[in-house]
Amino acid sequence: MPVTFDPDHLRESLRPLVDAQALSAEARVYQRFYGLDLATRKEPVVSRLGRFDIDGFEVVSQVWWPAQPVASLFLFHGFYDHMGLYRSVVEWGLDQGFVVIACDLPGHGLSSGERASIDDFAVYQQVVNGLFEQADALQLPKPWHLFGQSTGGAIVVDHLLHHGPDSPAQGQTFLLSPLVRPRAWGWSQLSYYLLKPFVKGIARRFSDNSNDPAFRPFLEADPLQPRQLPTAWVGALGRWIKRIEAAPRSTRRPLIVQGEEDMTVDWQHNLQVLSGKFDQPQILMVPRGRHHLANELPEIREQYFKFLTGHLK
């Protein structure tokens, strides 16, 4: 998989989404590379690529419009991920008549920042607000729905627990493999405190987090994949977990999809926490599902997308 675009050059060439900047040749190459041009759809889709600034980061955002939009979907990706891995979610959202808007988190994908690192999860909440501002400027149709996978789910959960009543996103909430605590968190904390004085990060180990045999090779060759686990991110996660555990209960009712073969997050613990924090969340357990549900086999995706569609307001 050759690198066919320069992430830094592409990011620096972008203006805010509201400027309706025409896609450059490099932007079109990027979209084709990840299938985000959605070239196989029967109806043409209008898309834009743009940039906004948050807390010293240049955050790259993207939006897709269906022919007759009825609502909007805010998509937040997982740790190590970027928008390019979520074509299946974008397609599903468009099929529902949603405008889909997303961004690469700081340190991920096309956005600036040390790769996969963050000093404080509060920055992610600033990104959420920044994406809301982009949507306001674009006058995206309401209701606004939220969609997050893994760390993206953690970001959505944080937003709802602390800003749910006054959030502009009063539509439905969709969570895939939401992160509260990763698997073997006790060992991760011990490793963090032992390693923090000596190293800034450790080499990333790719795992088979999807039943699709093509997904791991794609990740390993993906030019936008971080290659280290930064100790700063682990420390920020530890502080965030305490914030979530102390958060007030919410009256929101998210839809949660969790794979029973997920070896990335401590999903038994996480579902217990989320069930206590939200008002009767609807949970779909997927027996064969691994962690990266957005890139699972088509039959697994079909199962949970049917569940999500059936619960739309």
UniProtKB/TrEMBL annotation:
Instruction: Tell me which residues make up the Serine aminopeptidase S33 domain.
Output: 68-297
Does this entry carry the keyword Cell inner membrane?
no
Q: Which GO terms describe its molecular function?
A: hydrolase activity
Q: Which InterPro entries match?
A: AB_hydrolase_1, AB_hydrolase_fold, Hydrolase_4, MAG_DAG_Lipase
Give the keywords, sorted: Hydrolase
Which PANTHER family did the record assign?
Answer: PHOSPHOLIPASE-RELATED
Protein name in the entry: Lysophospholipase, alpha-beta hydrolase superfamily
- Source organism per entry reads Pseudomonas mucidolens
